Amino acid sequence: METTTAKIIKTAIIEDMREIREGLATLINFTEGFQCTGSFRSVEEALQRIRHDVPDVLLSDIGLPGMSGIEGVRILREKYPAMLILMLTVYEDDERIFEALCAGASGYLLKRTQPSKILENIREAVSGGAPMSPEVALKVVRLFREFRPPERSDYDLTPHETRILKLLIDGHNYTTAAKKLGVSYNTVKFHIRNIFDKLQVHSKSEAVVKAMQNRLV
User: Fold this and answer.
1) CATH number of the domain at 159-213, out of 3.40.50.2300, 1.20.1180.10, 1.10.10.10, 3.30.70.270?
2) Which residues are CB-contacts of 157 (< 8 A; sequence separation ≥ 6)?
3) How far apart are the C-alpha atoms of 36 and 30, rounded to whole Å?
4) CB of 22 within 8 A of CB of 39?
């Protein structure tokens, strides 16, 4: 007799509207292959409780009481680099989309997305994809076109610094970048400090934006 060994996709939710939060939890729990491991009203609540059962995928709203979902992505990605975060929001303006992706979100979905499509998008993220609602995907393509100047700027980055910068753009943090390159955390930290100095920026998000604006990778 054949047995299935498909991994259950553990999924958690950050959503302040109770009916949406409970609806998503029910959808996830009553779908084969999924399990809802946490349901939180705010980023602050998630930070307190999510460590007890870290999910594979987190669905997060942006407009939340207290800390915003975008700031939550930055903090949660640093704490749990293996966890994938998909934004699920009503916002579809360029600024929030760009900020969320730069902060480390693995995808960006609009709340009008059909329930079955949300589940499909979660599976896509776990398989290595970057799911986005069609309207959002079109905006992202346009944003990247707009942020590409005709001439490539040169900030005297070394090949190694360029590799590290590419990892930051791909969503890595200091720890996962070090593991990917086979070097120590402190080595990556040293190189990133040099990158920040050369680009004249003060954060990972600023470095990512400037790298894309100036076609540095």
Assistant:
1) 1.10.10.10
2) 165, 195, 198, 216
3) 9
4) yes
For the sheet with 107-110, list strands across it.
34-40, 9-14, 57-60, 84-89, 107-110
Class at the top of the CATH hierarchy for domain 9-145: alpha beta
* DSSP, res 132: B
Torsion region of 193: left, alpha or beta (phi above 0 gives left; psi -120 to 50 gives alpha): alpha
Structure tokens at 153: 């700027």
- E-assigned strand segments in 44-186: 57-60, 84-89, 107-110
Q: Which residue has the tokens 């699920």?
A: 88
pTM (global) more than 0.70:
no
- Given a cut of 70, the residues of the chain with pLDDT beneath it are 1-6, 144-154
Contact 12, 40 (CB under 8 A): yes
